[in-house]
User: What shape does this take?
Amino acid sequence: MLKHYLLSPGPTAVPERVQLAMAAPMIHHRTPQFSRIFAETREMLREVFQTEQDPILLAASGTGAMEAALVNVCSPGDVVIYVNGGKFGERWGKIAQKHGLVPVEIAVEWGEAVDPAAIEKALAEHPEARAVCVQASETSTTTEHPVREIAEIVARHENTVLIVDAITALGVVDLPMDAWGLDAVVAGSQKAFMLPPGLAMIACSEKYWRLAEGARCGRFYFDLLAERKAQAKGSDTTAWTPAVSLIRGLHEVLRMMLEEGLDKLFARHALLAEAARAGVQALGLRLISKRPATSATGAFVPDGIAGGAFVKYLRDKMGVTFAGGQDRFKGKIVRIAHLGYYDVFDIVIAMAALEMALARFGHPVQFGSGVAAAERVLMRRLPEVA
Ligand SMILES: Cc1ncc(COP(=O)(O)O)c(C=O)c1O
Assistant: This one.
C-alpha cells in the first residue's frame, strides 16, 4: 500500500464535502433545480472575482477560457501584446497565431517578472493593440507578474483590454478585478477552486463587452456574448450543456471559500508559500523565481540529480506528487503546490518528503532542517493555547 498526496499545481486535492456535493444524483440543466444552484454559484463567484460583472462558466479546461478571452474581443489582424515568461505566457502567442491575430511578444527571462515599463513601451509602439495578455501567476516558473501596475498602464488605452490568466492566482492572492480595472479574468476549476478539471470561469469588464461587440474572430462554442445572455439572471443556465456535477461542486467550494473569508484565504496561502520557501531554502535548494508565486514554490534540484527521476521517485515510490519542470526547465526543477485545499501539515509532509527523497538520491541532508524551517513559519497559523 502506498498512500498518495497530491501536491501538484493542478489538479489539486478535492475536499470531502465537495466530493459529496458532486456525488449527488444527476439533474437536468434546464430545470428550476439547476437554475437555483447556478444562480447562487454565479452570485458567490462575483464575490471571489471581486466584480459587479457576472462571471461566465464554460465546460472547458483553463486554456478554453484563455482562447475565449482573446477571440471574443479581437478581429483577424489585431495586434495582441503578450508577456512570455514561461509555458503559459507562450500559449497566448500560439492562440493568437491560430486566429490570425498579430502577436507581439514581450519576452521575459524564465523566473523573472515582467517590468511594467516593457508593457508601456510595447503599447507606445503598438497603440492600436487590442489586447495585452499576462499571467497573474506563471505556473511553469512559479512567478507572479505585477498585474496591478500593468492594469494602470492598459487603462490609459481606451481600445485595449487587459486579459489576465488568473488560473493559479484567483482564490490564492488578492486580485480585485473591478478595483484594479482588469478587463478579462480567467480561472480554472482544478487549481485554487479545489475541483476536478473541466470547468473554466471568465469575467469581463464593461470595456471588454463594449469592444466585444465588433469582434470578428471565429468562434462558436466559445461565444461569450451568447453565454452572457444564457447565463444572465432570470435565464440562469448555460448556452450548451454545462458540467453539471462540477457546478454543484463549485457551489460547495464557493461556500467554503466565503465561510473562510477572502482575507483569511489569501493569508493562509501566503503563509503556506512563505513556509515552503523557508523549508526549501533551508535544504540548500535555490528558488527558481525572483518574484515567487503564492500558488506554488519552485526550486532547482541540486546538480547531479536528474529532476525527472527525482519527481518520479517521489510520486511512484513515496506517494508524493509534486510537479517537475517543462520545456527548458525539464529535469531541472521541482514545484510544490500549495493552492486550494492545503494547510499546515501538507507543507510539513512536502518538506519531509523532499528531505527524504534528497537523501535517497545521495544529496547531503540534515534531516528535519527543511521541516523545522517551515514549522517556524507555520506556527503563526496555530492559535495560542486558551
Ligand atoms: C497559469 C496557467 N495558465 C493556463 C493553464 C492551462 O490550463 P488548463 O491546463 O486547465 O487548460 C495552466 C494550467 O496549469 C496554468 O497554470
In short: The two ends are 39 Å apart (CA to CA).
